[in-house]
Fold this protein.
Amino acid sequence: MKCRKCGSPAIIHIRRHKSSFCKQCFNEYFLKQIEKAISKFSMFDYADSLLLPVSGGKDSVALWHALISLGYTPHALHLQLGISKYSENSLRECRRFAEKFDVPLDVVFLEKESSITIPLIKEKTSIRICGACGTAKRYWYNRYALKNKHDVIVTGHNGDDLASQLFHAVKSWNIPSMLSTYPVREGRGSLVKRAKPLVYLTEKETMVYVLSNQLPVHLEECPLAQGAWSITEKEMLNSMEERQPGFKYRFLTEFYKHAFPKLTNNAKQENVRNAFQECIQCGMPSAKELCSYCRLVETTNRAR
Ligand code: AMP
Ligand code: FES
Ligand code: ZN
């Protein structure tokens, strides 16, 4: 297998592009896909202050390294979820990365801030744990970004993540969930703008990027995520991709091109009606009196 661009031995074959790349040409390809997403979706520019939530996993580590290589100076934030060894190892790899590249990393401890952990929510309540964890993550990214005046929250969701979320949402025609797979969401009031620059890249590509660049990374799966719908959806999409290379990419990008603009117009009118208010407890944006995070904390505390 030879690199399509320079003829050196290739380290990866990308079926949807009918291309193989050597290490150097793959790095160039990887960065180009990120630049393409940033510009196509007007995600951010060099004047913006970027908050980069990092888990220590392959996607956020790859994005961290890629943004630095492109000349950005993202401020990394790790949220400690309290999932014993899994969380400890995540934090260790984030710290190793920050030290190696001499870049800033801040850590928010869920337990210190709210006296809860993700395993405690799982133990005490019947709330679906990945959903609860997502609520806590989105809440803390936004709260931290607001407090520290960051312009954009940039996360490491890749194209496979977004395609599986879209597939899941389409199965029940859940339009708000379908719209939330768009790789950029403009800021509104105290909701900070969000961007997902890995939209054009796959899990396999972020994995090859971290391994070939020998980045500190944590490759363990979350022990609480077993049985999560996202795993099944990804397997189903991968089997379609097997038969039709490029299926996942087209599924996602054709949605952005054809359906998203029409659906988003209707949703905008609804949003005017469902304007955000401030959570009466924490002051963060909320659709109801109490935001979903404060409700989560309250439900967990009540069950103790
Ligand atoms: P996940 O929520 O695990 O699908 O991860 C999606 C993205 O969210 C990652 O690429 C990171 O950017 C961010 N992220 C996930 N977990 C954490 C965490 N514990 N702390 C900070 N950022 C995280
Ligand atoms: Fe959130 Fe596993 S990382 S439930
Ligand atoms: Zn609140």
The longest strand covers residues 75-80. The chain has a mean pLDDT of 95.
